[in-house]
Automatic annotation (TrEMBL):
This is ATP synthase subunit delta. F-type ATPases have 2 components, F(1) - the catalytic core - and F(0) - the membrane proton channel. F(1) has five subunits: alpha(3), beta(3), gamma(1), delta(1), epsilon(1). F(0) has three main subunits: a(1), b(2) and c(10-14). The alpha and beta chains form an alternating ring which encloses part of the gamma chain. F(1) is attached to F(0) by a central stalk formed by the gamma and epsilon chains, while a peripheral stalk is formed by the delta and b chains. It holds the Pfam family OSCP. The keyword Nucleotidyltransferase does not apply. Belongs to the ATPase delta chain family. Signal peptide: none annotated. NCBIfam families: ATP_synt_delta. SUPFAM superfamilies: N-terminal domain of the delta subunit of the F1F0-ATP synthase. It is found in: Cell inner membrane; Membrane. It comes from Leptotrichia buccalis (strain ATCC 14201 / DSM 1135 / JCM 12969 / NCTC 10249 / C-1013-b). GO terms for molecular function: proton-transporting ATP synthase activity, rotational mechanism.
Length: 175
């Protein structure tokens, strides 16, 4: 079975568990923290992926590392580690979020601009997108000075590139 399919199944199961225990938001946050630790800490990865280390030792490490979380959230983390699916944590988290957004009629949008947006600009962008897509927009704004001006919107698989850098590239192609 492909990793993508495995991640979908785990995300679905985790989402159902989180939903039944009314802890979707907490599990979502814990999955984010788990992914960040996995990606950023070599020591964290070594401890949890060591095939010679018994699960009971890994379990104690997790309990110490995630002592601020609920029993359900900690159980989710332990399950992922026990089933040796930690390397799929990014995909699992992404599919979990996708289920969450679909169920709550939300649409994640990544907006990339040359400079930070004002609060008024953010509100106007969110209002326009909510009207167009008829969903609650979850806006993630990033700043990339290389795009010179304008902006890029990433909405699902759709990319709307209105950056000046892109327009310059298009002009170059035509010459």
């Amino acid at each position: 079975m492909a990793n993508d399919e495995i991640a979908k199944r785990y995300a679905g199961a985790i989402y159902n568990i989180a939903k039944s225990s009314d802890s979707v938001n907490e599990v979502r946050e814990v999955l984010n923290i788990l992914m960040e630790n996995y990606e950023e800490s070599e020591e964290f990865r070594k401890i949890l992926e060591d095939p010679l280390k018994k699960f009971s030792k890994k379990e104690k490490f997790l309990e110490k590392s995630f002592n601020h979380t609920s029993k359900e959230s900690l159980g989710v983390i332990k399950y992922i580690v026990k089933k040796q699916r930690l390397s799929l944590i990014g995909e699992i988290k992404d599919y979990f979020l996708k289920l969450y957004y679909e169920e709550n009629n939300k649409l994640p949008v990544t907006a990339i601009f040359a400079k930070e947006l004002s609060e008024k600009q953010r509100e106007q962008l969110v209002q326009k997108l909510e009207k167009k897509y008829n969903k609650k927009i979850v806006l993630n704004v990033k700043v990339d000075k290389e795009i010179i001006g304008g902006g890029i919107l990433k909405i699902g698989n759709e990319v709307i590139n209105g950056s000046i850098k892109n327009q310059i590239e298009e002009i170059k192609k035509n010459f």
